[in-house]
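#onboarding

Welcome to the new folks! Below is a worked example of what a typical request in this channel looks like: someone posts a single protein sequence, and someone else replies with the predicted structure as tokens. Don't worry about understanding the tokens yet, we'll cover that in week two.

Example request:
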Amino acid sequence: MSETYRGNNGDLDPQSGLATVNDQPPAMNKATVNVLLAQMVKLSASDLHLSSSIPPSVRLSGELVRLDEFAAFEARELREMIYAMLTQRQRERFEEDLELDGSYSVPGIGRFRYNIMQQRGSVGAVFRYIPFQVPPLESLGLPPVVEKLASIPRGLVLVTGPTGSGKSTTLASILDRINSTRKAHIVTIEDPIEFLHSHKMSLVNQREVGADTKGFSNALRHVLRQDPDIILVGEMRDLETISSAITAAETGHYVLASLHTQDAPQAIDRMVDVFPSYQQQQIRVQLASTIQAIVTQQLLPVAVGGGRKVATEILVATPAVRNLIREAKTHQIYSSMQSGAQYGMCTMDNSLAQLVKSGEISLKTALTASSNPEELRRLIGGK
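Example response:
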């Protein structure tokens, strides 16, 4: 494995571990995982991508940027570097499954969620930055109605959106607000554990799939015997997990979960469609009685300067919305959201239009993010 380039005078910056340039350095240098993660945090990037035969890349304000100051990794070198950060058990799991999810900490830098994969016969990896501190809910730029979700006593709340849209951060911030304001037992089931929650007013038990439990569905089958008040499900992936989450919400628990869907009505359909046709009406009735709210979000590059801004769609379960779910009329939910501003509801196009009008994102960015560009143009005045 190659040594970190130390410059011609052999100095390392004490804060980041990166090479200091005292005179003209070589064109490229090679680094360890820790050095690359430190550079990623220094650049305020969200993800680090490692693949053989190409320099490392980071996702900066939503775009992939190549770190050309580092040399490309050879396949053998990259495998050795990634294996060096894994335990023997993790290496064995990866070699058996050819996939591995987990978390990794660098003291003084942060925690990172990673996925290691096999691609074209070599190893690749993607790391996502997770701050040590959970960001306050009010700092996320979400509508005020989201803050009210922390005071819900029971039911099901979903946070949805594409990968990299900040779902985990939103869920962690809601959970942190609950932890700070309520005396409750919180159980989280995650793959892997992302934000670390300390015990505040609540007691928090965090379980990681693969390390603390064999799977989401397995953990949910037993969670009701653990006297929980709030249950966080990192991701609802299959029929058994969705069924168990709905049952937990039905029995008086507050269940928070994430789902990979593009809008609120699609989230309802996704949960119903995983069940056999003979069960779907029963699931609609259960969902109609348990769902409290669905938050859908996207992170979009700002119009000027770096950074990203969140665009949010909010569905609140009013009696009218519950009735539409029960009667399988989810295609009409969008109309209820358009007319439900007094309940805190907002469509994604409405959120995008407000961001364009305020100059926070460009029209081009908004049109790309919209599922109904014509409606968006109407909302912003026909521009």
